[in-house]
Amino acid sequence: MENIFTINIKSVLEKHFGKKADDIFDKSQLIQYINEKTRSANKGSKSRSSFANLYAIYVIIEDYIENGYNKKGNYSNYEGAFFNKLFARQRELPFGSRLQNHALNNRMNSEFQKYFPSSEFIPILRNHETNRYWINENLLKIKIGKSNFNIAIKLFNEKQIRTHWDEEQEKWYFSIVDIVGVLTESNNPNNYWKVLKSRLKKEGSQLVTICNQLKMISTDGKYYLTDVADTEQLFRLIQSIPSPKAEPLKRRECG
């Protein structure tokens, strides 16, 4: 089932894999799991277990990339990442300071198996004696036709949509212009949003007036006030954007 974060996932896939993006999205159990877990990312403190599981995947794949195994291979010879390093890294991530170690130790694998009971793989591999960890590389490598792809560097080293987590309100805010850019593939998403915002104002839509502004980093490294919307507002806004990429989200809202 698609959610607001699916836009970002698919955008990154399309950028790197082109026409094969949908096949990779459908075939990768790891991506399917990540997509499913991001559905609850806007549920405040109740989403902490989801973040823990996502962060467990993230920090191990980050270690995999930092050591160059996505390029040089020979991952089977790697001695593994220390638990203390991975857990400390989890707690450095946004609102990760209160996370416990359950996701790394078992919970993430157990939940993954509930989603994919027939899968022959689990994401996190662990040596109980040495307390070292590995990502299951079988879940990073996807075969489409005669071509093989490693999704690690593509998905985990890129960010397409700027976001902000409001600790007090316990909700995500998304850059509207980034969402517009991904959905419309416009060469000038700022102007597209400017025109759309003007049209919505003329139509008397309250959506424009209730959207907020937050300072977000731009491509020049500076922070500027940026129009943002929470999840509910974005789903309403997407109804006004004619785009094939928006259709699954429009159906979700109507359903």
Structural class: alpha+beta
Mean pLDDT: 83
How much of the residues is beta strand, in percent? 15-25%
Helix and strand string, N-terminal first? Answer: HHHHHEHHEEEEHEEHHHEEHH
Poorly predicted runs: none
N- and C-termini, Cα separation = 12 Å
The largest pleated sheet is described as: 4 strands, antiparallel
Number of domains: 2
Strand order of the largest sheet: 6-7-9-8
General description of the model:
The chain has helices spanning 6-17, 21-27, 29-37, 48-66, 69-72, 83-92, 102-115, 152-156, 176-184, 189-202, 207-210, 231-238, 247-254; strands at 81-82, 124-127, 132-135, 141-144, 147-150, 163-166, 171-175, 212-217, 223-229. With 255 residues, the protein is an alpha+beta fold. The protein has 2 domains: 6-156, no CATH class; 163-254, no CATH class. The strands form 3 sheets. It has a 4-stranded antiparallel beta sheet with strand order 6-7-9-8. β6 and β7 (171-175) form a beta hairpin. It is globular, with a radius of gyration of 19 Å.
Topology of helices and strands:
Elements: H1 6-17, H2 21-27, H3 29-37, H4 48-66, H5 69-72, E1 81-82, H6 83-92, H7 102-115, E2 124-127, E3 132-135, E4 141-144, E5 147-150, H8 152-156, E6 163-166, E7 171-175, H9 176-184, H10 189-202, H11 207-210, E8 212-217, E9 223-229, H12 231-238, H13 247-254
Antiparallel strand pairs: 1-3, 2-3, 4-5, 6-7, 7-9, 8-9
What distinguishing features does this structure have?
255 residues, 48% helix, 2 domains, four-stranded antiparallel beta sheet, alpha+beta
